[in-house]
Amino acid sequence: MTVLPSATITRAPLARPRAAALSGVAEGLAHHLGWSTTAVRALFIATGAIWGAGALLYLWLWATVPAEAGTARTTRRIPVAWLLLAAALVLLILGLGPHSYAPVSWLPPASLAPVYVSVAASLAAGIWSAVLDRPDPARGAGHDVAVRLVATPLALGAVPVFVNAAQSGAFSYPLPGLISALGAMLCAALIWTPNLVTRYHELQTARVSAIRDEHRAEMAAHLHDSVLQTLALIQNRAGASSEAGRLARAQERELRAWLYDGDTPADSDLATDLRDYGSALELDYEVVMTVVSAGTSTERASGEVAAAAREAMLNAARHAGGEVSVYIEGAPGSVDVYVRDRGPGFEPADVPPDRLGVRESIIGRLRRIGGSATVAPGAGGGTEVHIRFPAGGSRG
What we know:
By secondary structure, this protein is α/β, with parallel strands linked by helices. Helices cover 55% and strands 11% of the residues. The protein has 3 domains: 19-64, no CATH class; 79-191; 275-396, Heat Shock Protein 90 (2-Layer Sandwich).
């Protein structure tokens, strides 16, 4: 008897989408289970009536399920902060009516319950805006300030309600009403607390950075007069292509980067990556790499353009040696990279078919992503590799 292999079910990984209605929990779970998003949302609502089990499960998944891989910011279609503010306004209006006496001496009257919920909703709107809406690229800082400017008077609007209720005898004792009024004012202040914390952190960071820059400047002045000049002298005496000269040049670059780049980590952009790669090639080959960048490019070090440029630099260091110049000309929608050496040069057509370094790693790689690469003799001898992305000069 032939046993048929059992079918395997491949599920998508459980992850929350970065573009979601609220948190992405329902959409991510539906994608993982192969269900419809509407069915998953209905299940959460139905189980929410069972002692809040659905709501607790939703919050637990929101806290534990990771977001989709990527660097994009999370965006939410539902304006939660404004819905909370609308609810706070309605509840505050409902609480402006007459207030009955409390059945228990130290408890507020039931007629003031909407006012307490209104203050809580105003505070929740401010916190939601500061924590979740402010990093959202669809909203940002302007949206955050607008929400806080509306939430603050709504929270303060409960203060006269509590004071009037205490004076009119709605409370058995005036003290609970006064405490409630102070609590509303405290909530109004807490709405702006995240801004104050952020400003304090920025001031502390700037102060520490200023102290470090001062010490770094003193050390840089001393090292510039001693160590850096010594390294430059070694390069001049030993020659640019000698082992001692290459080591001295690498140490000088590392020391200058530590002194003058500060504590800010180097962004993983194209120019930074090619400079680092050129410094590494100088340690392995008798070559001097000069990397110059002009303009602003959006290309990253992890892109195909950087990989093709690194291959061109490696070929120049391995087969030509001497001085190699790398020129990066960037624009918001395009980038051009020129790698020039002064070696004997070669013709790409003469390269054997089994040598794929130039044909596939440079020309083919750029062609596959919509760019172009050419290899031609240099103006003063040697070889020039021109990498362009996109091929037309703009991403349009």
